[in-house]
Amino acid sequence: MATATLTNRPTLPALNGAAGLAIHRFTLGQYHEMARAGILSERDRVELLNGWIVEKMTIHPPHSFAVRRLSRLLDRLLTDEWVLSVQQPVTIAASDSEPEPDVVVAVGPDSRYAARHPGPKDVALVVEVADTSLADDRTTMLGIYAAARLPVYWIVNLVDRRVEVYTDPRGGKNPTYRTHRDYGPDDAVPVTLAGRTAGSIPVREILPR
Fold first, then answer.
1. What three-state secondary structure class fits 37?
2. Distance between the two ends of the chain, CA-based, in angstroms?
3. Any idea what DSSP says for residue 60?
4. I need a surface site. Which of 56, 136, 169, 201 has the fewest CB within 10 A?
5. In this structure, is the dihedral angle defined by the CA atoms of residues 202, 157, 83 and 4, taken in order, positive or negative?
6. Residues 162, 139 contacting (CB under 8 angstroms)
């Protein structure tokens, strides 16, 4: 068993030596209002993390490959009681966050999300595919997901060619996952949804060659 460390918020941009300048954090409601008003649009590659509007990292071809392959493999295992979403928002009101994970499996049916995004009580599995974002996915994103008590968090680690599986979230002042297990290219990762195993996915089939 291993316990991951984390930070409580994304790293802020440098202020070019302008010490003492105030930095404004946004509520989830303000973030949504900016989108409705057209201040933010779909062309703006941003997400709300712990009240900060953060620019999303560039998606490279190996990252896209892993997201596509994992989505296809997961979809084969899912029954109609589950919904698979790819790079779509999850609303976490308690931390003023609305991340857009690479893959999410949530309780169905699809109509459940006609007027809202999935929230923490809906999500069974959340996945981030990590290359340049690996450090953030192990710290900031892990902290947000653990605080929201998302039960299973995977990091598809393209740098070290493995899948990191985090379970048993703990909230509070220093949120984290109590259990961490790594699966290498010769392993298969069990897909556990609401405490039940839906099947497994060979790690080698997710990783770019």
1. coil
2. 29
3. P
4. 56
5. positive
6. no
**102 near 85, Cβ under 8 Å?**
no
The pair of structure tokens assigned to 147 is 């605080």
Helix H or strand E encompassing 140: helix 140-147
Amino acid at 64: S
Per-run averaged pLDDT (10 residues), the chain, 209 residues: 39 51 82 90 87 88 97 97 97 95 97 97 98 94 97 98 98 95 98 97 96
Q: Residues 58-205: name the CATH superfamily.
A: tt1808, chain A (3.90.1570.10)
Instruction: Give the SS3 label for residue 31.
Output: helix
Contacts of 115 (CB under 8 A, 6+ apart): none
- State the pLDDT at residue 40: 86
